[in-house]
Each structure stands twice: as structure tokens, then as C-alpha cells.
């Protein structure tokens, strides 16, 4: 079985290399993403649609400044670059089940 920390790290590597196929492959088919603004993203296709343009521009990158894990959950303190004029600090909780991320909560 793949450890949750390893799955989240694979997701991060795909994000930073702008590899949309590898990125989406780390998520469950029925992925649910809860964004800090209250909106929700549901399913792999919606995930692909949301990130494809961003990846095509090749300017997004996330830096991990802290990581905690317990059971199925991994919580990253990230600094996101390329999304705004200044870096954005965010807490992101990932739940990993059966080797895939099935829930993401943006906490800030």
C-alpha cells in the first residue's frame, strides 16, 4: 500500500512539473475539493479542467514549508507561486484512501 505522504508528494511533483496527467492520476475518480471560498470541485474531469490552463502557462509552483500526517490525512503548509503577484500561503489537507487522494480541504 502506498503511504499517504508519498501520494501527496507525487501530486506535488506533478504540480510543480506541470504534468496534468500525472497530477490527475494521484486523485480518486470521485475526488471532492473544498476551496477556502466555500466553492467545491467534484470529480477528476473537473479537476483536470480547473488546472489544465494553469499548467499550460507553466508558471505555478508550490513550496512546502511544513507537513504533518496522521492516518489517512496529510496537511501541508504551502507557499504557492505564480498564482498572484505575490506568493500565497495556504494550508491544505489531503485525505488519501486506497493510494489516491479522495478529498482536499483548503483551510486558508
Uncertain runs: none
* Beta-strand percent range: 35-45%
In DSSP terms, counting alpha (H) and pi (I) runs of 4 or more, how many helices? 3
Fraction of residues in helices?
Answer: 25-40%
CATH topology: Nuclear Transport Factor 2, Chain: A
Terminal CA distance: 30 Å
CATH top level assignment: Alpha Beta
How many strands, which pairing sense, and closed or not: the largest β-sheet?
6 strands, mixed
Question: Cα-atom Rg, whole angstroms?
Answer: 13 Å
Work out the count of structural domains.
Answer: 1
Integer average pLDDT: 95
Number of strands: 6
Strand arrangement across the biggest beta sheet: 2-1-6-5-4-3
CATH architecture: Roll
Output the structural class: alpha+beta
What is the general shape? globular
SSE order, one letter for each helix or strand = HHEEHEEEE
Summed up:
With 108 residues, this protein is an alpha+beta fold.
Provide an overview of this structure.
The N and C termini lie far apart (30 Å). The protein has one domain (4-106): Nuclear Transport Factor 2, Chain: A (Roll). The protein is an alpha+beta fold and 108 residues long. The chain is 31% helix and 44% strand. The longest helix is centred in the middle third of the chain and has 14 residues, at 44-57. The mean pLDDT is 95.
Keywords:
31% helix, 3 helices, globular, alpha+beta, Nuclear Transport Factor 2, Chain: A, 6 strands, six-stranded mixed β-sheet, 108 residues
Amino acid at each position: 500500500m502506498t503511504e499517504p505522504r508519498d501520494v501527496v508528494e507525487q501530486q506535488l511533483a506533478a504540480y510543480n512539473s506541470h504534468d496534468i496527467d500525472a497530477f490527475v492520476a494521484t486523485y480518486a475518480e470521485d475526488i471532492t475539493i473544498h476551496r477556502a471560498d466555500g466553492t467545491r470541485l467534484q470529480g477528476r474531469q473537473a479537476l483536470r479542467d480547473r488546472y489544465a490552463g494553469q499548467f499550460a502557462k507553466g508558471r505555478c509552483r508550490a513550496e512546502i514549508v511544513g507537513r504533518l500526517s496522521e492516518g489517512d490525512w496529510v496537511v501541508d503548509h504551502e507557499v504557492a507561486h505564480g498564482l498572484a503577484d505575490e506568493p500565497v500561503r495556504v494550508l491544505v489537507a489531503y485525505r488519501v484512501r486506497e493510494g489516491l487522494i479522495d478529498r482536499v480541504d483548503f483551510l486558508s
